[in-house]
Amino acid sequence: MAVTEALIQKVLAAITQAAGASNLDLTLGYIGTQPSSYPINSVFLWTSGPQQAIVNVGLKPGASISLRSLEENLRRKLPQEFPGTHFSFDPGDLISQILNFGAPSSAEVAIAGPQYADVQSYANRGPERAGKSKGIARCRI
Predict the structure, then answer these.
(1) What is the DSSP string of 67-119?
(2) What is the pLDDT of residues 8-63, one digit of tens each?
(3) Is the residue at 16 inside a domain?
(4) Which residues pair with 39 in a beta bridge?
(5) Residue 59 lies in a domain
(6) Do 23 and 64 contact (CB within 8 A), yes or no?
(7) What are 31's strand-pairing partners?
(8) Contact yes or no for 60/20 (Cβ under 8 A)
(9) Which domain range does residue 48 map to?
(10) What is the number of structural domains in the chain?
(11) Burial class of residue 19, CB neighbours in 10 A (0-12, 13-18, 19+)
């Protein structure tokens, strides 16, 4: 877990730099799996082991940067600065997380059909088509 903790410290520094320290209200991180004695229900922390972390970042009311622009900036910056890591930008509030059924994105598409080859062919065209839609940050199969 020490490796993940050190990495998260660097990621938080990159987030602080991107957002501007004066715009951040708080940061909260969970690294690895939580022990049973920890006072939080693990249904809200979907970490599978010491290699995974969840970081929540809150902007101050009236911040000079919008959450959307910060996310877009971090989507480009973080994977380049920390190769080999994967980042997702989940909703921070519990209601959006529940309405999203726990999916790491705001939309999830399931494709089904009687012939696997047809389904696979159709599904493989999805990311190309979705990438042309405004508001879709990333699409993967």
Answers:
(1) HHHHHHHHHHHHHHHSTT-------SSHHHHHHTTT-SSS-------S-HHHH
(2) 999 999 999 999 999 999 888 778 877 777 776 666 666 777 888 888 888 999 99
(3) yes
(4) none
(5) yes
(6) yes
(7) 53
(8) no
(9) 2-90
(10) 1
(11) buried
